Amino acid sequence: MNAEILAVGTELLLGNIVNTNAQYIAKRLADIGIDVYFQSVVGDNSGRLYKAFELALQRADIVITTGGLGPTQDDLTKEIAAEISGKKLLLDDKALRMIEEYFSRMGRTMTENNKKQAYIPEASKVFYNYRGTAPGCAIEMGGKIIILLPGPPREMEEMFERSVIPYLSQFQEGVLASKILRVCGVGESKVEELLADLLDSQTNPTIALYAKFGEVSIRITAKAETEEKAKDLICPVENEIRKILGNHIYGEGDQNLEDVFGELLIKHKKSIAVAESCTGGLLAGRLINYPGISAVFKEGVVAYSNEAKIRRLGVSEATLSQYGAVSKETALEMAKGICIKAGTSIGISTTGIAGPGGGSIEKPVGLVYAGLCIDGELYSVKFNFTGKRQEIRERTVISVLDWARKILIEKLNSGKF
Amino acid sequence: MNAEILAVGTELLLGNIVNTNAQYIAKRLADIGIDVYFQSVVGDNSGRLYKAFELALQRADIVITTGGLGPTQDDLTKEIAAEISGKKLLLDDKALRMIEEYFSRMGRTMTENNKKQAYIPEASKVFYNYRGTAPGCAIEMGGKIIILLPGPPREMEEMFERSVIPYLSQFQEGVLASKILRVCGVGESKVEELLADLLDSQTNPTIALYAKFGEVSIRITAKAETEEKAKDLICPVENEIRKILGNHIYGEGDQNLEDVFGELLIKHKKSIAVAESCTGGLLAGRLINYPGISAVFKEGVVAYSNEAKIRRLGVSEATLSQYGAVSKETALEMAKGICIKAGTSIGISTTGIAGPGGGSIEKPVGLVYAGLCIDGELYSVKFNFTGKRQEIRERTVISVLDWARKILIEKLNSGKF
Fold it and tell me: Helix (H, G, I), strand (E, B), or coil: what is residue A151?
């Protein structure tokens, strides 16, 4: 079975609002194994809306609309759906009562045009609205289904979970399961190259790659009779991918890099402090996204000036004048310095040229050094990033966090830390 | 002239990402007077993509696609567009050079499949990509235009502003000029209420509001024979809006809050340091977005633990035990402490409960105090935010920065600072 999502509303065509409903519905349909091949947006115009309905009914088994169920004259979705399916609109008593109750709860007077919302195409399955006034419905017609849903996301989502999912489940065979692996340190095209054989031969499970800023997600999706069996199909493919990508896979599902890093620190009771120059607080900011990090995060210092690097971190003036603030040597002294000052077992530092000014031929914009001090042992890394100032700084945060994660894991695995 | 927006990508059909590109493009097209009647989304499937192209070319004068220009095999948009327009794909030397430079700047090896991105349909207008690898282009064919744009929003938006708007302008009569005013400290619906009379009576110029996280942009757009004349139309409307919103308008055009704040500090030679608890580096991170801030930004301290607040900032143990870490008193001592330790004329502090844990009835999640020390004088403010951990922290940064900006301006205007 496949579905098309048809959003109705001139405000979408004008770009006044973003179509989050389409994303929500698409995701939930994917969860229950209904394919979506097209999504469309059309304005509050009866001619174009009629055509969009016709087209969607040609292309899909199920057409799910959002919006256009309101009380005003330019709310047309239900009227057009009734016309195209040849159904009369009939007053639904329960829907009317619920709209009346809604207005009385809100202490507002119900206007005459609100009654329009209680009319439903005959013989359709009504989806009552527990968060607003417009009910939705499902119209079955010659093997096709039209589902009408209200536009406001909180009304639509409640109705979708309460009524639409159970309604659609009756038509589904088999169950879908999926698993997401999260990857850092290799780009999308490189991941694709590494997984080429797996990607070429995929059928069930399927494997899809998604690039996000600085990372890649891999979604493995399988279909089977039961969730258990679908998961059994995923398992060997996941193992194969893990074997190829190794510790570039940092997490699963909704996990972020900072979640994984924070969990590692907390699990192994390792305290951390950071000393930032070019990232100027963003690295600490990212680490502190992880709730509970306070158990291990001691402090952060934004030592942007040389003076602060000397006074707050104990970097030596000689190092700064001989190698410069943006150097491996300074990065290492910063990492060591913050460890000592904060009394932590791990210290991370960043220093680089985020631009747009400050670059030279020897040290161009985008050059970044990071330092890591783990249990007194020192590591450094050099990056050459591109992009604007903010992008360079954000890429630094992700890359340094991933680099430190990989070293931390090695150290922990070695058993000496 | 009218346009159809066609987004290409299975990740949209699966609901993995939301189609913000369609909103962005729709809004910008509305600004320059191009109507959009349909938006569509189709997956990385050549048959369905071909059909979607055919349909869009029937319905619209201009078809603008996003996505599917990547290096992998399932990136098909350019290939299908070339097929449908009967154009060959030819290697564009400049595009190839830019891709090679991109990889060399990133210190990564360019894989063979990246070359595919430098092939462009013959005789089309190339839109080079200054933020990524895939160039876009415009293909003119029998009175219709196909515009291909990359999928990542930051690449697409830069290309749209730099190349697509000027390209489309040649088909438009008259000249458009627009001005953006940036607002912080009042929500979108409040701005709409305050500007209701202006918004109701708008024709030329038009006024459009755009809500972004924590702020609102007001775009005034006028059409006239010349740019000069269009600007003359904008001027009185801008003045009217400025009279109504006063210092809630913090900047213009591309300016960010940190740009405006940084410029103020540099212009008046005022040094600054920040002490952060709940924002944990994000406030420093935001300030340091402004290039050149190093002239005035001395240091930042992420004093997440009580111990760090005492040792690094000189907050008294008595204050922490009597009022708690999240209190007006602690915020003030943190602001004063960082000023003294760093020897700056301005110090800003944040302390709050970002959640999800740590809240109580008296001090719920979302409670945030900020402190400001300017030239020895102390100010504080209390916020009650809602939302998730990261959202609360980011709202804090914006709100505190805007609050400090307003006080700083008052102080500077008073002539005593």
Answer: coil
